Structures are given as structure tokens and as C-alpha cells.
Amino acid sequence: MNTIGWAVKELHNGNKVRRSGWNGKGMFLILVPGSKVKVAEGRPLASCFPIGTEFEYAPHVDMWTAQGYLIPWLCSQADLLATDWELAE
Fold first, then answer.
1. Are 70 and 64 in contact (CB under 8 A)?
2. HEC profile for 43-81?
3. Cα–Cα distance between 34 and 32 in angstroms, integer?
4. Residue ranges per domain, the chain?
5. What is the pLDDT of residues 17-37, one digit of tens each?
6. CA dihedral 82, 72, 60, 58 (to 10 degrees)
């Protein structure tokens, strides 16, 4: 019986986690550390910020989806209360 607290600790330890109840094949979460970013020409952020703008991304959790995308993840109430968290390969 692994709770969200267990999952967060595992993310901080550098592990990938998932819920056994998720239907999508290959889905998992990772902790992305904070990083400095410089806006470069031709990159998506260049449509919002001047080229050369520097800023910091805050640490956050991303999900690898069943469709093969890496997206920011927000915890749902179901995920928050779930007890089926496990390590992902």
C-alpha cells in the first residue's frame, strides 16, 4: 500500500513512479529539477519572450504519456488518495 507521500519520496530519490490503476501503457512520472533557460531564436518560448531572456524553471513533476509525450502533471484527487503507487521501469 503505497501512498502519494511514498511516490513523492521516490521521485526525490530519482526514481520513476506510476499508479497500477492507470490504464495507459508505459505512463510514469519523473521529478524535473529546476534549471536556467535562455530563450533562443526559433524555439517555442521565443513567441512569448525576447530572444536572450533568461529565467529559471522551478522544479516540477512531468508525466510520460501513453502517446509518448512528456507533459507537466497535476495531481488529481483520485491520485492524491490512491494507494496503488509503484516504481516504474
1. yes
2. CHHHHCCCCCCEEEECCEEEEECCCCCEEECCCCHHHHH
3. 7
4. 4-87
5. 999 999 889 999 999 999 999
6. -150
Distances (CA, A) of 79 to 30, 45, 55, 89: 15, 31, 31, 19
C-alpha 72/C-alpha 38 separation (Å) is 20
Instruction: For 37-68, write each residue's pLDDT tens digit.
Output: 999 999 999 999 999 999 999 999 999 999 99
Instruction: Give the integer Cα–Cα distance in Å for 13 and 9.
Output: 6
d(CA 40, CA 52): 6
What the block records as the C-alpha cell of 79 is 491520485
